[in-house]
Amino acid sequence: MKELLLLLFVSTVGFSQSVYKGNVSEGGLALPGASICIRNTKTCTTSDFDGNYQIEAKVGDILQISYIGMKTKSFKITHASFKKKSNSGDQILSSDYIEKVRKTTDTVKIAQSSGSHELNLSEVFEDQNILKIDRNKYGIYSVKKRNQYHKISFELNQEYISSTPIRLSKYQNTYAQGRSLNGEAVYQSPATKEIFSWGPNVNSLAYSTTPSEYYPQGDIVNKSSGNSNTLQLHNANDFFQNGVDNKFSLATQIESPKGNFLKINFFYKTGTISIPTSRNNESTTTLKYFRRVSNFSTIETLLSYNDFENNLSNSNFGVNKIIFGNAVTPIHFDNKTASTLSSGLQRSYSAFENNPYYLIQNNLDKNKSKTVSFVFNHKYSKGAYENTLNANFQSSEITNSSGQNFNFARITAPNVNKRFEKFKNFSVSDFLRRDFNSDAFVESKMEFRFLERGLERNYFSGFVTPIDAPANNLPQNKLDSRQKRVEVFYNLNGSYSFKDILGNYEELVLKASSNLNYSSTVKNRLMLNSLVSAEIKNLFNKKMAFSISYTSNETEPSLQNNNLSFNSLRYQVAQFKQLQNNLELMTPKNAIATEETTASFGLLYNINYRWSFKVNYYNKNVHNLYVPVFNSNTVNWSPEVNYKQKGIEAELDKIIYFSRQLSYGFNLNFTHFRNEVTSFNSNQTRLPFAGFADVNKNYIVGQPLGVIVGNGYLRDANHTVIVDENGFPIEDAQPKVLGNANPDFVVGLSNTIRYKDLTLNFSFDWSQGGKIWNGTQQTLNYYGKSEWTGNQRNVTNYVFDGVTQSGLKNTQPVSFYDVNLPVEQNRWSRYGVEGVAEEAIEDATYVRLSSVNLSYTKGFDYFDNKFSFSISFFMNNVFIISKSKSAFSNNAMFNSIETGGLDYFNAPMMRSFGSSLTIKF
Q: Between vectors from CA 322 to CA 316 and to CA 323, what angle results, nearest 5°?
């Protein structure tokens, strides 16, 4: 058998004596991805889609050109190499190789390369077990052996993650339940319904010899000479448990000689969060079948079923209420001892507060969902034409229950919500593409889509006994909604490339796209989307590319909307325990489309072929953004907000090859943006969209999106705080903008180190600026549970910086906690449970080592059978450095993205440790 050599065409253009340009091809076809290196150096490059390449070289250097499945070609750079010439090297082809290729058809999908860059196809052909040889349109070959067919392959994956809560609130561990009475701090038992922990030092208290349901060790009394039973103290953070996620998947596949295959995948996950007894389970089964109908067409189908269950969904703010109840409990009261009294009432340290375990045991916030989907895909590709027909069906059923049970604190009327939603989606689309050599293409797509949403919701209340809830009581309110939408999309887009526009491999790529969408639920029925862009590439010796684009889109709101972030807007912070989630956002009939236009400018620059720098600037304008608008006891989903946003995104990439076995790469990215509300479509002055009635995120004309609004201190014309006659700052009754929740900029850095089969990845992120409202700290201060109040409650003769109401400098000294005054007049309780929101605004800046992952991958061949495994160990939220010690801007209040920047007894952040094992055979 003759040897197959790589055919090399050399064409040079002399910008300088150090730049060599060439082209790699075989049989007249360009070979993209060929490796070109200068022997005994780390200077390498690869050929592009047309086989072209350029490399910095000097006379005397030896170039080595290698390609998968072909013999390495070497030649020496001479002075003549930098002169223009059109001659080519001789092509030596094997006649029996050509015959073997002619007898095969390109019908088998690539599954195994023919070897490394040092391996010749001739060496592979000596194996008589070869069944198929394929070459794709890029000139890349693959081979198949007989024993690779009609064998079942398996892939197993097991992942285990354990998470521990971090950045928890800090509590005082010195003072007991109670308040100031008659000039001293007095212990007040649960029977008094006392909510505060402004009582005496716990060292002055002891257990009596009289046990009770509240204190089985003995009721708490003042310590006397004959009673020295020290109180047992409890750290509120001990309430939280470690979260666990256990994931398992099994995939099996069998492939026929024609490339048809059947794949079955099963996935199961079970997990817990930081709240005791929490549980969520999810299972997914998929069945995929691929069949090659002919040399030009394939069929692919996918059937999947998903089942999900969560026993603590937070659908009625239950998780936050549980964390609240645990946090405000005095340090000497053990919630875990029992959650129910013999009378059937809740056992808690105060009838006005909840035992977190009672909330857990009587939790009504649950969620179940089932989803079935089916996808059919037919693809036809021949020559320059490609056509794809796709049909997709999905059906989901979601069942939610939520409510507030008997004996919940501050609840006068127990209530239950039963919510059932059924969502169906069916679509058919056809995609057609026509390529014109490598210079241009045209694509066309038409899609028909039908969506249906059925929502039934019943609200029950007025129960006499727990056994009545909810089956034996008629619903007080009932919602029965049916929404349907028919959509037709037509898309036409194309691209054309002008090459060598300046004579030095420059390329100008022009693209245009137009979408005409019809929707039965949008007001004018038709929506028009468009895109135009231009990109010039390979400027300045292929080092630079510049792009400019303009897009215009019209979209309508989805039929389904998240309602956790806005239901709380009907309640003050002080009403937190009464929060209910029973209003729905319904997409209006004849909805107005949201309009968005974006102009962007991009630059790509390669430095010495080793560094890659990208930067993109954009200017975006949005009209008719949908927001919740309240009217009495109803809420509407309304297109009210218009805004603009400008931003810049930059990215720097670098890969360093120290040797064939050791490399290091990193990606550094930077994001900065500024936005501003430009106008409203109604006479509103501000529109809150997340948070509480008295502290919330807002759209305000002239302000950034999502500014935090709440109460502050009263100030004079010079913005100096005004102090009352008692020496304390005066609260301003008028709400005001307290801060912008958006960061000034965000930086991300990801790193990858590879050594042989080991890979280490670790990533940092840095968010600078922005504000966060730490309402958790304010409420803990009010109750006397925070570490701050424990350390400073005995401060005296403190003078607040400010002026009196008459304009004079304040000189009135105060005590933070004067036992001669009612407890409601101390430094922290005087402003209510929510405090002064201005004082709770904190800097959201942080630096975080977000993830570390170490993995090892190894493959083996046993009698032509493939076996590989990959094992990894990882850690997330490794460490965080921030100005705020407990609140975190990325930790949303109700697990809803709209509430980011607000903290009110949020579920704690978790630092997770895990391992993953994948086996393929």
A: 120
* SS3 of residue 669 by DSSP: strand
For the CA atoms of 164, 168, 170, 175, what is the dihedral angle to 10 degrees? -80
Q: What are 532's two structure tokens?
A: 């135009």
Q: Which residues contact 613 (CB under 8 A, 6 or more apart)?
A: 603, 604, 605, 606, 607, 650, 651, 652, 653
Q: What is the CA radius of gyration of the chain?
A: 34
What is the CA angle 387-393-395, rounded to 5?
165
- Strand partners of residue 690: 697
Residue pLDDT, tens place only, 192-232: 999 999 999 999 999 998 999 999 999 999 987 567 788 99
Report DSSP state, residue 845. Answer: -
Strand partners, 489: 447, 517
Could you give the C-alpha distances from 570 to 51, 732, 770, 773, in angstroms and in order?
65, 21, 26, 18
* Phi, psi values for residue 745, rounded to 5°: -160, 165
Band the pLDDT of 437: cuts 50, 70, 90.
Answer: confident
Give me the residues paired with residue 262 across strands.
Answer: 254, 289
Region 836-845: mean pLDDT is 96
Q: How many Cβ atoms are within 10 Å of 404's Cβ, its own excluded?
A: 28
Distance CA 325, CA 345 (A): 16
Residue type, position 327, single letter? A
d(CA 254, CA 290): 11
Distance, CA of 264 to CA of 250 (rounded, Å): 8
* C-alpha closest to that of 641 among 709, 588, 592: 592
Cα 796 to Cα 827: distance, rounded to the nearest angstrom: 11
Pairing of strands 722-723, 803-804: parallel
Q: How many CA atoms lie within 13 A of 384 on its CB side?
A: 10
What is d(CA 724, CA 730) in angstroms, rounded to the nearest whole number? 6
Q: What is the 3-state secondary structure (H, E, C) of 727-772?
A: CCECEEEEEEEEEECCCCEEEEEEEEEEECCEEEEEEEEEEECCEE
pTM confidence score: 0.83
- What confidence score (pLDDT) does residue 118 get? 33
Classify 267 in phi/psi space as left (phi over 0), alpha (psi -120 to 50) or beta. Answer: beta
Report how far Cα 680 is from the mean position of its chain's Cα atoms: 29
CA dihedral defined by 775, 776, 778, 781, rounded to 10 degrees? 170
Q: Which amino acid is at 294?
A: S
Q: Contact, 911 vs 878, CB < 8 A?
A: yes
What local confidence, expressed as pLDDT, does residue 28 receive?
53
- The Cα–Cα gap between 868 and 855 comes to 13
| pLDDT, tens digit (0-9, with 9 covering 90-100), for 557-573 | 888 776 667 899 999 99
Helix, strand, coil % in the chain, rounded to nearest 5: 10, 50, 40
The answer to whether 908 and 776 have CB atoms below 8 angstroms apart is no
- Give every CB contact of residue 385 below 8 A, 6+ residues apart in sequence: 432, 433, 434, 435
pLDDT digits (tens, 9 = 90+) for 650-692: 999 998 888 889 999 999 999 999 999 999 999 889 999 999 9
502: how many CB neighbours lie within 10 A of its CB?
Answer: 11
Q: Give the residue among 692, 722, 723, 728 at the shortest CA–CA distance from 710.
A: 692
Helices 775-783 and 318-327, packing angle to 10 deg? 40
Q: What distance in Å separates the CA atoms of residue 586 and residue 201, rounded to the nearest whole number?
A: 54
Distance CA 147, CA 523 (A): 61
The Cα–Cα gap between 235 and 171 comes to: 8
CA 279 to chain centre: 21
Dihedral of alpha carbons 568, 569, 571, 572, sign: positive
Contact between residue 547 and residue 508 where contact means Cβ atoms under 8 Å apart: no
* φ/ψ bin of 688: left (φ > 0), alpha (ψ from -120 to 50), beta (otherwise): beta
Is-contact 909 798, C-beta < 8 A? no
